[in-house]
## 1
Amino acid sequence: MGTKVFVFGIDALTPSLVRQWAAEGHLSNFARLIAEGCFGKMRSTGEFSSPQAWPSFMTGVNPGKHGIFSFLQRIPGTYRFHHSTSQDIKAETIFSILSRHNRTVAALNFPCTYPAQPVNGIVVAGWLTPSLQADGATYPASIADQLQNCFGHYPFHADTKRHIIARHNQRALTNLIDALETKIKVGQYLYDQQSWDLFALAVVETDAVQHYFWPYCDPRHPLYEQVDRSWCENPVLVLYQQVDAALGKFMEKIDDQTILVVMSDHGGGILNQGRAYMRSFLQELGLLMVKRSTLTGSLIGSVRSRTRRFTEQIGHRWLPKGMKSSLLSNRLTRRWIENYYAKSFISQNDWSRTKAYSFYWETQPWVNLAGREPDGIVQPGEEYEQIRDYIIRMLSQAKDPATGQRAVERVFRREELYHGPYLENFPDIAVWWNRNIPLSGLVVVDDSGKVIKAKKEMDMAGLYGGHSPEGVVSLWGPGINSGQTLEGARIEDLAPTILYLLGHPVPDDMDGMPLLRAMTEDATQRPVEYEEASSQKPQTTEEVYSEEDEVAVKQRLRDLGYI
């Protein structure tokens, strides 16, 4: 069995697209990977989202154990949030485990790794890192200086959304390709610096290109026949071909003692847009009560909210950096930014009458539970379950008014998807929306016979692609079965698989299992060994993001539809 592992993580890489385009001759290196290695689908986490899935890849546990639900984490005991960081991952990562045992590791670009945590090697933090100059952008800090000197810049996040809105599609695609190419070059540069036991590189541009250009590659999408192809026939395929070229370079670069693991955190698909209706849906059901009691007040509030959002976006994108810094150093400006979010999504609620609600980032429903929420009114036990049952039933019956199709595929109680000590930090209900259609609305008849029509309350302009629950997994190299389809893999299986490949015991708290079925009989003669899980946690600091960083990071999340 090989003594080293190279991981190529490709955000939202979609199994069906890879197989189709490899078979058609568009992705020659993926075709080689499929023919010579073990390739298959891999089940993502409960809600197949990046902030849940990447930490599960790194820790081998489900989100209920590592603690991250969203890119914006709710602060327990409040209605407020903070941005998810590496400090919120409550389970030990494979990079930390191997470092404790003096194995050399490199982790580049993985989401939820900012600020970079100390390892026996190097870390370049993920796409919500404010800049290469930010404290914690890399570990050690000297790596940031190396990258600055060698490459001039480092594109944690490609400047894309504003070009999409302006219909400058070619510029948007070019920026994604440039960001991808820079990350690949950086990966090659750092890989060549020494021999690594585990070298792991992630790219996220595949996710972005699917969010913006999914109708170009999916005949099921209602816009498939309408998109402008004069500038590019299929931008998603173009970016996949760039990834394929990078894959070929890595396949040639690694030696015959290294196992290549190619994986994605989830797949892509049609963006349903259902979550844009959730807050209105709960309000129309009489579960979410707002303080605005008149039509005039509602209209004024709506205009005020849209004006605040427009002003913030324009300021972030077009004001010189010096002017932004000056504005953000002002106490009144900072208070305005804080109030913008609070007034728009929290303080407008009448908590004394609200039984269920949703936030604006990940809009899964929460019950306003007494003893957990600051102003909770629903009693634990029977009343809590009655509220959950009612929401689940109404969502399950809801339909898209344009097509008559069911709006959701399935609705879950949170404990049906997750388990662990951090379950209480997750919404009470999880919704899998119908991924076959982009919703035109959300309609249901309530128990009184009233027709409920929810309104769209999130701006998702320019976004057409969403996520699907199955990503890609492939192993290639010595001791790996050739031409085999890998069945039944879960993203939690990859951490224990990597540890097994490196001859290291698997911590006993991991939910995943080593993918021994991907390996040859000779390679699996050694039994899986287990060890007691470490209680080691990430280092913590009081502040992670500055005021200016907060604005920039929120804009990145907004660009991809997270808020």
## 2
Amino acid sequence: MNKKLLFTLLLTGTTSVGHATDEARLLRFPATNGQEVVFSYAGDLYKAPLKGGEAQRLTSHIGYEMFARFSPDGKSIAFTGQYDGNTEVYLISADGGEPTRLTYTATNSRDDLGDRMGPNNIVMTWSPDGKNIVYRNRISDGFDGKLWIYDPANKKVENITNNVAQDIVPMWIGDEIFFISDRDMTMNIFVYNTQTKQTEKVTNYTDYDVKFPSSNGEVIVYENGGYLYKLDPKTRQTEKISITLKSDNILARKEMKKVGGNLTAVSLSADGHRVAVTARGEVFDVPADKGVTRDITRTPGANERDAVWSPDGKYIAYISDRTGETEVWLQPSEGGEPIQLTENNDTYIRQLMWSPNSKKVLYTDRKNRIVEVDVNSKSKKTVMQNPEGEFYSVNYSPDSQWITYTKSGKNNMSVVYVYHLTSGKEYPVTEKWYDSSSPCFSTDGKYLIFTSERDFNPIYSQTEWNHAYNRMGGVYIALLAKDTPSPFLPSDEKISIEDNASGNKAATKENKADNKAGQATGVTIDTEGLPGRLLKLPLAAGYYYQLYSDGKKVWYSNCRI
């Protein structure tokens, strides 16, 4: 009796959960026949009424099914699928069923949905008579972001969007050509009138791009922010298509994962005993030798990244989007609740670092800013903002009073700078004529080490009379103080005769000096004439990165191109 009752209760609970459906999101690649809309969700094709409602699943293969297009009569759907390994064109009934493969093409090395040019064999449209399917095959890596009209009678070509923006996905409806453009930084729908030659902006989204619009000649459907919308070309009115669907969410199920092969960041603690590891969106506190590995974030619904230990060992700082926007968080090394260091951020955070005194956290963001945050007060200060582009390779000086970074100028050459945080003054270290990058202070505060492309050794083509430059990079150091001598000056060893006692005292002093080596109490930078105090390390030209120096040696990574 009790067993039967328990089974009934469990079944009832399961049934109620199965009926709980929310509005679907992350819907992609929509197309319409005027009555229905077909789209991709979690790699499968679904169909729903154009007015919204419950979606019907059409495919269920483990690969991707995408870029669906209704036939002119609305009875068939052509789409791009991966049933047999390659990405090919398939045909399926609009009511579902077994798909028929239509194309057999060679494997493309860049046949990847994540590639910026898209996968191979994208279904574009049908011919008006429904006898042919137009698809794009990746036979090259070129891409033209301009729109053209070809007049076959007069054999003339007319450019209708001559600007630096990307103007793509044209849809000819009546006397007008609708397309999407990012000329206002966010991709929106525009329309060009073939009679008046005028262009008009139709949508005005600022948060998310309009993506993958398509039309049956009477209505336009498109994606924005993961939702689907329909646009009436005549009235210019848009309406959201509210869709619900039942999915087994096979790709979103909880599972145990080995993340050792998915490391994105590592940071060693000050004492060298622990390592902060970022892997697959989680932050782990890992022993350097023996001990317990701890997942300190445990947020499967959020993405944590770029975890870094504070120099004093009290905190692990990391970036998280658990609030809906990227913010800086702190995890006490002794345990306890995480601390949200920043709030109400307005854009994506790029790079994160601690000041050597552990009092400040500095980050760069997508709005081309350098922002410094006080750990105790949580107050934020925008150090600077660059209208030309983002900052890269931002690093503190050992005394936490200066920062160094690269920023791009109007000629697209990156220049290395130093910036005094108290006075707010910026000073160039390199000239604008050479591309320079990866600056960092030596730990003793005497030098600034960076890379710069200044080696011009042209090679000549075997098939055409032209030249090219490669292996231009070298490692350079800047002498920060005027009285700092070049470390490459020759010196003679002096021979002195001392007794053993004196020798022991000298050895003791030398050991103490070695212990203090690399610990700068104050960094002196004589900014006048700084670009003239640059020295090149005696290294062959190549590609150098990941620089570090203690003032006596320079460590680097090198990729010989």
## 3
Amino acid sequence: MKKTKKINSLQSLRFLAFLGIFVWHLNGYLDIKAPNFAAVAVPFFFMLSGFVSVLNIDKYIDDSKSMIKNIVNYTKKKMGKIYKLYLLVLILYMPISFKHIVLDQGYSLILYIVLFAVNILLLQSWMPKFTNGLSHAGWYLSNLMFLSIITVPLHKLKKFINKDNRIIINIIYICTSVILLFEYCSLFKNNVSFWLYYFPIFCAFEYSIGMDIAQIYKKIKDKFTDYSFISLTVVEIMIFYAAIIMLGYERCFSLGFQLSLLYIIINGLIILCFSLTKGLITKVLSIRPLVKLGELSNNMYLIHIITISYILSLLDKILEHNNLNKIIASILVLLVTVCLSYIYSLYENKKLKDKLIRFFGNFKRRKFKFTNFTIIANNCFAGIIYRNNNIPYQSPTCGLFIMPDDYIKFIYNLKKYLSKEMQQISINDSKYKEYLETINYSGTIGKIDDIEVMFLHYKDFEEAKNKWYKRAERINYDKIIYKFNDQNNCTYDNLKDFQSFKAKNKLCFTAKKYNGVDSIIFEEFEKDGYVKNDTKEKIFKKYINIYDYINSIDGDK
């Protein structure tokens, strides 16, 4: 599948949108009357999310699966990581939300518990009175959850639109929707901030327009290559100027959320313009620091409520109350928000954990008498040993698993298979299709002659293939260990074949004793009938001291 290239300028605009929300939330503290940036920025987030969903959705939809399974898969992929941060923010915000709802407003503890459950389920954006009760940023996640659920059906529905007339139909659809929504908002003018800002159905309208803009973008993007740099820069400046004029108009007339429909128009123009053009402003927006900040914008949006609430309260007690100190405090809060967002991004991408593992691995590595050993394993065991001890990977069998039949073939003819070309195949073409479907396998598959390699921890097949060959070149055939276990439908014959394999250094892990098989028995998996997991150090170290074993191995040719 062709990888969708990120549009860097739009990533940077995410950060600028967050910055607008941040300033708006500091309006009272700084005692300023800034335009309602939030009324522009939040719809921009929703529209941009709809835009990006169209560009990326093919990665998440499997036409061989039902609509429900595709919806569940898409929602899990989109919400999985950020939901963890949301729960953390919700818990950290509890002292403030409890004081606000129970102590200040006099609501009962039972109502607070009910509202907490509603927030955990991400349903608060459907409740006009308590949308912001427990977390001022939580309603945004509530809407994102709803939008993630409807993305796949919306995408399918929009595919029915005639491709030849899609642009015209989209323009008519957008204009008609705007007219209808002007009528709609007049019915709810007494609570317009809820209906045109928080309410999921209206946010779905913004999201849907973002999807339509993406279709327009895909249709016309190739036509913008012939325009000059100056022409494109002029267009970009005009779009930015229009946005400034609109904010100024809102500032003068204090209409706030009642201008939401106009914000949709200007946001749509901004997204379309900076996804297509390559002018001066796009060049500036594409610089790496801004792009990185844009990638952190969702984290910053959730975290900034915590930093504003707690850090400003602390600084108020330390600093004198004057305008300069308030500005310094606000900048400090912004820097802390960015830092915390970055740290969390490392954690959610497992980079922080990996850095810590490798750091402590520098000390653990000293337990080995030598580190130039190779482990040929049937699963991720080899990679875990190398990573946990910060040793260069000297085996191609890292971040993958190989089915028992194929693993036996592989080790009996190791050099033969390592010399052959690897090809990518789909699950449908795999001889293990039925088994892979039962374990919901979603990785990539490489085929070498008659064996298959199931790659787990790689972004695509090309990365997996390149690392396979690169690491194969590092194999030390004089210090090689073969490691096998009884998982992935392993049979007694597979174990016997491994037992018969002529190698001095072999490790076999099983859940029970097999006649004629020398194995280390992982007793905790006896009821399972096979070793479910031998790649966690806290598990395998109960049965084998890997340092003593490797230090004692003999050369193996």
